[in-house]
Design brief:
This protein has 265 residues and is of the alpha+beta class. The chain is built from five helices and eleven strands, in the order αβαββββαβββαβββα. Strands 8-7-11-9-10 form a five-stranded mixed sheet, with helices on one face. The chain starts with a helix and ends with a helix.
Length: 265
């Protein structure tokens, strides 16, 4: 009977120790130290349909800018009560329509899709000058509520706000607390919509070739999914099998104990 107990103990120990050892992975494994990399002229977030913007026009004569900052009924503007401009009006949130068009007071409807904030600022200022309304306009364009989603094997999955341009995939992962040890670093998925078409990019974060990917810089509404690696899959199977075998061993031990107890009676 003692032999049986020893066998049960050994079996339980082997089951508990049956997990594979974890291998740690790092990013940009093929990058060469101190090798300069040319920074691509991209990463500026471009305006998309249904984006919400605040557009503020200013001038040395504030009264001249007032009409350009007024609300228009076309875009169902929403005032931001906590913000104000020099003319005394609250900031207006203007929504780009599904065709990428935006209606501005005085100058009318303009196409804004695929423009950066700076390009739109320059376009609006140009139209104001060409219309003879203001000779010295300055235009400030800001996004109101941009976000991305980070899902899968990261420390804190969820939606995160983008507050500036040139947010990289590494910045996005940092927002979510980085990958867990189970994250698959060679096949990270980035889902995005471009002109109404769904696109999926797969990124190998261990290679410096990631710098050439169109998804290296994230965009508003991107969804980033980190797949579980083989160790996580194996761990899940092992945990299920371990629970099953532990139940069997526990049952056998209970039966053996009962038999010993009865035999002593």
């Amino acid at each position: 009977m003692k032999r049986f107990f020893y066998l049960a103990l050994v079996a339980t120990t082997l089951i508990l120790a049956s997990c594979n050892p974890q291998k740690r992975a790092w990013y940009l494994q093929d990058a060469v130290e101190f090798t300069p990399e040319e920074i691509a002229e991209q990463g500026q977030i471009r305006i998309q349909p249904l984006d919400r913007l605040t557009i503020v026009v200013n001038s040395k004569d504030p009264e001249l800018a007032v009409p350009f900052n007024a609300a228009t009924g076309y875009n169902a503007l929403t005032p931001l009560a906590s913000s104000s401009i020099s003319s005394g009006n609250t900031l207006q949130v203007r929504t780009v329509d599904e065709k990428g068009m935006l209606e501005m007071p005085v100058i009318g409807t303009i196409k804004v899709a695929d423009l950066t904030r700076m390009e739109l600022s320059q376009l609006i200022a140009q139209k104001i000058i060409e219309g003879g309304y203001i000779n010295d306009p300055t235009v400030n364009v800001q996004f109101v509520d941009m976000k991305i989603s980070v899902l899968g094997e990261v420390a804190r999955p969820g939606a995160y706000a983008l507050t500036h341009d040139k947010v990289t995939i590494f910045d996005a992962l940092a927002m979510a607390g980085d990958m867990t040890i189970y994250g698959q670093r060679t096949d990270v998925m980035v889902y995005r919509e471009i002109d109404g078409v769904r696109h999926i990019e797969y990124l190998d974060l261990t290679s410096k070739n990631i710098f050439e990917s169109p998804a290296f810089y994230v965009r508003q509404n991107d969804a980033i999914y980190v797949k579980p690696n083989k160790y996580k899959a194996q761990s899940g199977e092992i945990n299920q099998n371990r629970s099953f075998y532990i139940s069997i061993v526990s049952t056998l031990v209970s039966v053996a104990t009962l038999i010993v107890t009865i035999s002593k009676l």
